[in-house]
Amino acid sequence: MAKKSGGGCLVLVIVAGLAIFGYYQWQKGSSAAPPSGDDTGGGTGRYVALGDSYTSAPRTGAAAGTPPGCDRSANNYPHLVSASIKPAEFVDVSCSGAVTASMTGTQKTANGTNPAQLDAVTKTTTLVTVGIGGNDVGFIALAQQCTTVHPNGAACRDRLTADGHDQLAERTAATAPKIAALLDTIHTKAPKAQIIVVGYPTVLPDGDGCWPALPVGSGDVAYLRDSLANLNTMLSDQAKAHKAGYADTATPSKGHDLCTASDTRWTEGIVPTSHAIPLHPNAKGEQAMAETVENLVKTP
């Protein structure tokens, strides 16, 4: 999620890591299947992947597609899904730093401009995956404000929930109609398409975190973890309300968060130990996300 100082989102902790380093952004879960009537296509026709950096997966593998500034990898979950289901056509237009506005408008990156992602969705499209929303909540603007030398701190939570207003919850609520409009537009542009909204994986562990490896206080870890869960709930609710499936990547990725051992984690920490950018899924994480999506794809 993070922007080109990053790539696709997760919560303040993601952007905090990106700010520090100057970088850019399974066990099967309880994913909700999309409507399965004969009026939708599925994995046999044209598959279009939309999303941010959690979809494009910067640096997990060989670079794929243009513009280079979108940081797509050839082993991100859309490419893995495509290799598995073998659609007649496959187009991945995901881009690091994308927001919902990047679906209908161009997105400038540090190395080229990505066309409006929805331009790739045509009347012949039969499958669309969508991984978006985290950047809309505005985590990037809060980048440098959650790191701390106090392991039990909660300065970000206290500031962001002052006066009885939870800013992250309010921004998530404000993003919901944008997701709704996006899904409705996809249905209009591709009336035969199966749509799958892809949620964000588990980034933070249960408990207090792993300070100082992750320099975020325990109170803020809990707040950010809950805020991410709220974002995923919103995405799931919008998928259900707008005739789309929901790929729950958070449930299968529990126990594989950034505080786990390097051979266990599916999301990298501030200093990656495998190919990925900080605080984003590595190749194992993208593979797990792909498997969750594949379980929902309609095939003959």
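The record above closes out task 2.4. Task 2.5 opens with a second protein, given below.
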Amino acid sequence: MKINSSHADHVSHGGHGGARPGGLSVSESGYTLEFDSTILSTGTQTVTFRVTGPDGQPVTEYTPEHEKELHLIAVRRDTTGFQHVHPVRDRKGTWSVELALEPGDWRFFADIHPAGHDGTLTLGIDASVAGQYDPQPLSNDTRTAHVGAYTVTLDGELAPGEASDLTLTVSRNGRPVTDLQPYLGAYGHLVALRVGDLGYLHVHPESAPGDGTTEPGPEITFMATAPSGGTYRLYLDFQHDDAVRTAEFTVRATSATRRPDAASQAAPEHNTGHHHGHHAQHAQH
């Protein structure tokens, strides 16, 4: 199943042509993400926040994107703890959601399309979770993820400023999964975060379940554009047997002109901004 994404524009909100990912700012186009507290406790808790509009008032009308008015992504700054959740909004515009948080510095992303605005926005905010922080090292190049009995493999390269296909293949106990269930209107949901500043790429398959051509696995293919070279963490959400699971990868965006084919393994170059794609690193989740 090959599904291209019509949402490559999530790489750059506001028409920056891929030069700037989303989620780097708490405010954009007059819309601001406001948490009731940016100092949080350890463990499972309810987090509340709102999005204010150009008039300074909480936004209460949204255009749903991928079946939800707001997608909230939570991730610790060391790229662990990824969570993709869908808060509940009250009539006054306050959102609430239950999250399980470990000590450390966290980044939260709100992916929204305010009613009347000309497109989607991704707003980002930092918060601190109290407690002893044990940051984890970034995983090495990872093209295979294990999630319980499931194995997900990643094929394809991220290229700075170039659209490219990323194909993820899902199997369980060594057998291809051919009955993936729709999740948020698709068979997969992919988030990529740029390591260093957690610049946010959010990509969905273009084809949809039930369109007569899209098969429910084992392959899910996204079209993505990296805004720059560097290391990215990729988080794939997929649903099977009525449960949503997340597979994580580390990928490095490399220049197509310097990237060898899969059979070639040249040593990576340092301090040039060009690295060989087979040594990629990944988001996300």
